[in-house]
Every structure is written in C-alpha cells, then in structure tokens.
C-alpha cells in the first residue's frame, strides 16, 4: 500500500501543473501576438482544440484509470504534458502552435478523472483533502499568470513554456520512482458517503449537470480572459506584464482560501447547506465587474474567483460523496467531459464576445449564465449521510 500522504502530495502537485499548463497560453498570448504578427482575437482561438480535448479526453482516461492503472496514467500525465509544454516553445507557425496546445489538452485530460479519484481514495477527511487539492489547482492558475508574465518579460514567451515543461518531467520521474502500482484494497473512501431518497436522485443529476456546465464555462472564461482584462482595465495602476501577473496571482489566492474553507465546511454540513449561499456570489460580481476598472475591478474579481472556485470544490465533493471506488474515475470522467467540453467552447465565445462588445458584453453574458447556479442549488435535495467505509487492515 502506498503512503497516502505521499500519493496525495504528488497528486496535488499534478493538479497545480494541470491548471498551470492549460493557462500559460492565456497569459503569454499578450506578448505572443506582436511576435507572431497576429491580433489577440485571431490568436486566442488556437487554444480551443486543446480545451475541447481537455474535456473530451477525460472519458477515455477515466475508463483507463479504473480498468488499467491510475498510477500508470499519472506517469503518462507528467511525461506527456511536460513534453508538450516544451514543444510549444519551439513552434514556428500558428498550425504548429495549435497542434502543441492540443497535445497539452490531451495529456491534461488525464488528471481530473484519475487524480481526483486518487485523492478521494486515499483521503482521511474527504472535504479537507478536496479543499486542499483545490488550493493546489488554484495556485497553479495564479502562478501561471505570475510566472508567465515574469518569464515572458525577461526571457521571452518561448521559455515560459519550456521551463515548466522541464520541471514537470522531473516531477514525473520522482513520481514513477516513489509511487508503486496502486493497491486499492485499503482505500479509505471505498463506499459512497451520502445518499438521497431514490425518488430524488434525478434532482442530484440535474443540479450537477446545470452547475457543472455553468461553472466550468464561467471558470474557464474568467481564467482565460483575466490577463487581458487586467492589461486593459488596470492601465491606471500599471502596464508591466510582471506586475499584472502579481495582481492576478493575488486575486486567485482568495479563490484558494475559499476552496480550503468550503472543503472544511463540507466535512461538517450537507452539500446543499454549503452550496446554496455560495451560489449567490457569482452573478452580481460578474455584472459589476463589467464596467469597473483599477482597484474596484480587482475587488470585484476577488468576488468572482471566490464564487467560481468555491463551486468547483462543491462539484468535485458531490461526485466523490455519491460514488463508490469501483466507478469513481468513470464518474469523474463524465463530470469533467461535460464541464471541460463546455469550457472549451467558452474560449471561442470569449474571443467572439470580446470582438463584438469588449469585456462589458463578455462579463455580462457570463454573469447571466451564472444565475443558473442558484437554480441548481435550489434543486439539489437534502442528503442522508452514511458512514464512510472503514480502511481495510
């Protein structure tokens, strides 16, 4: 049996890398455009196939994780995504760029159905570990904007992809050496931990479907658009790409704290009790942010990331609580297929809305979509908690 703390540490690092790698382009595109002679709205859609693959690939990777080996899939994740990031640093044409970003998305699709299932299996307190895992992913989002801004400013955009690719491959080597093929006989969360009345299960599926589509689409749109939004709207504070990255990272820290707090609350309260008040955050902050700039925009952005990242933790805990070990990777694969496929479409939508009406139109549109999160929270039934399975000796 692997050491649970060691496995969880590597899986948390993988979550960091997963989100970091998917958002390097969103920050680097600001300086890549002039270098490649293309406008922001022309270059951004090249990320769309990668984001679609991020979700679509999860159906296959989740099945392989359950039927073959989650450990082996994570080895492929580290090596493949690292090599793909390095490849982006050597592209010469837009077509090559699209192909390399597609490869990042394909390998990134491994993490969520496989890595999240591993977290649930080895966790002692599910909510706490899911919250901490979310913090690592959030820090990956924040660090991507920060580190890419700094490296891009001083070393050029190519090294913004090459350097993290090298580090990722080294972490993958350490994982392969220190985590052996998993033995699931001692998984701590083997059984489902919560249930609802049989006649209410349709409400669980409907609520999950609604919130996954709404949150995944909004989450991706915000993380992709924020570097450009800050570059335009924070001109009164700074024009430095590095400092803009620092500000974006600071905003995402609040999202990380929210995920940890929500994770702790999930261990003590029902999902509906946690989800309902949280659902009222996103829509108003998105609406207000549409017309704000400088410090007021930063404050509104903090509210946005708190609402979005908190809901992601609720979504992941919902799947973990209602599924058994045997089906967990496949359940997460469906959840992330739906979520990331919708999120992939949001990249093109961001570019289109930005071209039509700038960030005012874009933020107001996604703010209206976030009203569905409130509907989902109301639909979700109260759960009947059941004891977690005991760890096998």
TrEMBL record:
Gene Ontology MF: a single term: transmembrane transporter activity
Principal subcellular localization: membrane
Pfam families (UniProt xref): MFS_1
PROSITE patterns in the record: MFS
InterPro entries given in the database record: MFS, MFS_dom, MFS_trans_sf, MFS_Transporters
Cell compartment(s), UniProt: Cell membrane
Alphabetized UniProt keyword annotations: Cell membrane, Membrane, Transmembrane, Transmembrane helix, Transport
Topology of the protein relative to the lipid bilayer: Multi-pass membrane protein
Domain of life (superkingdom): Bacteria
Alphabetized PANTHER family for the sequence: MULTIDRUG RESISTANCE PROTEIN MDTH, RESISTANCE PROTEIN MDTM, PUTATIVE-RELATED-RELATED
Protein known as: MFS transporter
Organism: Bradyrhizobium retamae
Taxonomic classification: Bacteria, Pseudomonadati, Pseudomonadota, Alphaproteobacteria, Hyphomicrobiales
């Amino acid at each position: 049996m692997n050491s649970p703390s060691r496995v969880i540490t590597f899986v948390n690092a993988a979550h960091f890398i997963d989100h970091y790698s998917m958002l390097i382009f969103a920050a680097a595109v600001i300086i890549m455009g002039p270098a490649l002679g293309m406008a922001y709205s022309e270059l951004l859609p090249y990320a769309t196939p990668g984001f679609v693959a991020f979700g679509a690939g999860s159906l296959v990777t989740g099945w392989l994780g359950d039927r073959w080996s989650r450990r082996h899939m994570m080895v492929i994740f580290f090596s493949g995504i690292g090599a793909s990031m390095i490849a982006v640093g050597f592209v010469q044409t837009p077509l090559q760029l699209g192909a390399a970003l597609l490869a990042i998305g394909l390998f990134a699709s491994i993490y969520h159905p496989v890595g999240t299932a591993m977290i649930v299996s080895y966790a002692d307190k599910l909510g706490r570990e899911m919250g901490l895992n979310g913090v690592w992913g959030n820090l990956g989002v924040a660090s991507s904007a920060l580190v890419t801004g700094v490296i891009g400013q001083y070393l050029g955009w190519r090294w913004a992809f090459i350097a993290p690719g090298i580090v990722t491959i080294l972490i993958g080597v350490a994982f392969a050496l220190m985590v052996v093929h998993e033995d699931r006989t001692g998984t701590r969360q083997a059984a489902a931990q919560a249930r609802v009345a049989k006649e209410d299960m349709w409400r669980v599926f409907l609520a999950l479907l609604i919130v996954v589509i709404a949150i995944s689409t909004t989450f991706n749109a915000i993380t992709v658009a924020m570097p450009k939004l800050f570059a335009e709207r924070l001109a009164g504070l700074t024009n430095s790409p590095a400092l803009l990255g620092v500000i974006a990272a600071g905003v995402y820290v609040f999202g990380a704290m929210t995920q940890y707090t929500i994770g702790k609350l999930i261990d003590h309260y029902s999902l509906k009790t946690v989800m309902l008040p949280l659902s009222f955050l996103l829509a108003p902050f998105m609406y207000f942010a549409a017309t704000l700039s400088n410090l007021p925009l930063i404050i509104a952005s903090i509210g946005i990331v708190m609402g979005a990242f908190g809901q992601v933790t609720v979504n992941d805990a919902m799947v973990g609580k209602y599924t058994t070990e045997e089906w967990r990777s496949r359940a997460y694969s469906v959840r992330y297929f739906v979520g990331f496929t919708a999120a992939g479409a949001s990249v093109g939508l961001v570019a289109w809305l930005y071209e039509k009406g700038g960030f005012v139109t874009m933020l107001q549109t996604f703010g209206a979509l976030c009203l569905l999160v409130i509907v989902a929270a109301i639909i979700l039934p109260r759960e009947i908690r059941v004891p977690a399975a005991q760890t096998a000796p």
